[in-house]
Amino acid sequence: MSRADFFDGLRGGSAIAMASAPFGALFGALAVDNGMSLAEVTFMSATVYAGASQMVGLELFGHNVQAWLIVASILAVNFRHVLYSAAIAPYIKHFSPLQKFFTFFLLVDPQFAETLKRGEAGKPVTFVWYLGFGIIIYIPWVLVSLLGGLLGNYIGDPKLIGLDILLPAYFLGIVLDFRHRDNFLPVAAVSAVASVVAYHYVGSPWHVSLGAAAGIILAALFPPPPHEQELESDLHEV
Amino acid sequence: MAFDLHMALVIVAAAVATYATRIGGYILITTMKRIPPRMEAALAAVPAAVLTTLVAPAFFIGGWDSKLALLVALVVGLRASHTWMLIVAWLFVLGWRHTIGM
């Protein structure tokens, strides 16, 4: 039974691993291009293990931003996980403390989505299933980042081969993933305007925190929706 | 292959911060039972708000090649996956720079 659960997890997770691979490689290549060493690239993928926020880190490392602001921005991008761990709580209550420790470490967007789906469908959410699903995404993510980093060593001028467009285009893609959330358009519009204004009048990197704060405050000011919000993961990769 | 101490510390801090978000909701829900709706709305808005602030200035300070590539990527992104967005934006910029110029 538990063996079958484990393989069930591996099977489900491998599709996510394949979808995430190009982004892991992109992270590695751009990171090395921004001056990170292979060891640092691998270390970051292995410990932070959250694709979008790793890219945010890169973007800010490249701009000589103070360390605490980099960490704060990574924290902000990953704040959605707070909702995830709250939502899967009823289905993982029976895990042991050590199992919970690993459970939270591996809680990337698709891991959350699958756990919630499985729990709501009444299927047993066992730790072996969760672990199988998680490690088949985690291990390739770390390896593929390293591989991308190795390739990044051979990239010359990033502008000449158009690499500079990939980071903003990637961020744009993640923003679009959230477009079905309540008040998405006003939040994105206000954050966009506030960040551009802050960029001109206050300067980088403050446009990130000021722009984001404007959108978040706006979201809190809107009247709460009368219906219970259906919480879903909007991202399909690590 | 250097392992810069400062960089390593930033990465560790980022990892701890990320882990805190992944365990935070569980701790919150088991102590509070329920997250207040406004707080939930604010939390739900965080990622889109933060990431928008990284795209918008890049759009405004970028040249016409980057501006148009991002617009094309936006249209593609409404229909297709991230991978296609990146491929199309990349090909657009490459094509532009090798025909019209940098």
Automatic annotation (TrEMBL), chain A:
GO terms for biological process: L-valine transmembrane transport. Keywords: Cell membrane, Membrane, Transmembrane, Transmembrane helix, Transport. It is found in: Cell membrane. It comes from the Bacteria. The chain crosses the membrane at residues 66-92, 127-148, 160-176, 183-200. Its main location: membrane. It is a multi-pass membrane protein. One of its GO terms (cellular component) is plasma membrane. Belongs to the AzlC family. This is Branched-chain amino acid ABC transporter permease. It comes from Rhizobium altiplani.
UniProtKB/TrEMBL annotation, chain B:
The chain crosses the membrane at residues 6-29, 41-62, 68-96. The keyword Transmembrane applies. Keywords: Membrane, Transmembrane, Transmembrane helix. InterPro entries: Brnchd-chn_aa_trnsp_AzlD. It comes from the Bacteria. This is Branched-chain amino acid transport.
